[in-house]
């Protein structure tokens, strides 16, 4: 088990999990149940929901995939999945081509460097 992503909230954690599963990477969300119940406890990496992969051998692929997700990109097969605005971090439904909050365009997959 390796932690590959720390999410800001459970919704994001589960979205990353579904992204990874599209790629055939089995994963698990941890800590989501604690979210919002820790009154007065500072938010740290330990209290935020996180995504873990089950197979350590898939770590490199998982990290690569998540880094694209964080740039608001995705492989063509992920275009039907939710995406994340590179500017404000808002999570967008797949049908939107730009951010409804700040207007930033979705980054096309071919811009991956
Ligand atoms: Zn935005």
Q: Quick gist of this model?
A:
The protein has helices spanning 10-22, 59-70; strands at residues 2-6, 27-30, 50-53, 83-84, 91-92. The protein has 113 residues and is α+β, with helices and mostly antiparallel strands.
Supply the number of helical segments. Answer: 2
User: In percent, how much strand structure appears in the residues?
Assistant: 15-25%
Rg, please?
Answer: 14 Å
Largest sheet entry: 3 strands, antiparallel
Number of domains: 1
How would you classify the helix and strand content by structural class?
alpha+beta
Any ligands, ions or cofactors bound here, and which?
zinc ion
User: How would you write the strand order of the largest sheet?
Assistant: 1-3-2
Mean pLDDT, as a whole number?
81
Strand tally: 5
Helix/strand order, N-terminal first: EHEEHEE
Termini separation comes to: 28 Å
Tell me what the structure shows:
With 113 residues, the protein is an alpha+beta fold. The protein has one domain. It is built from 2 helices and 5 strands; from the N terminus they run E-H-E-E-H-E-E. The strands form 2 sheets. Strands 1-3-2 form a 3-stranded antiparallel beta sheet, with helices on one face. Strands 4-5 form a two-stranded antiparallel ribbon. The longest helix is centred in the N-terminal third of the chain and has 13 residues. The chain is globular. Bound molecules: zinc ion. The site of zinc ion (ZN) has 8 residues, from loops.
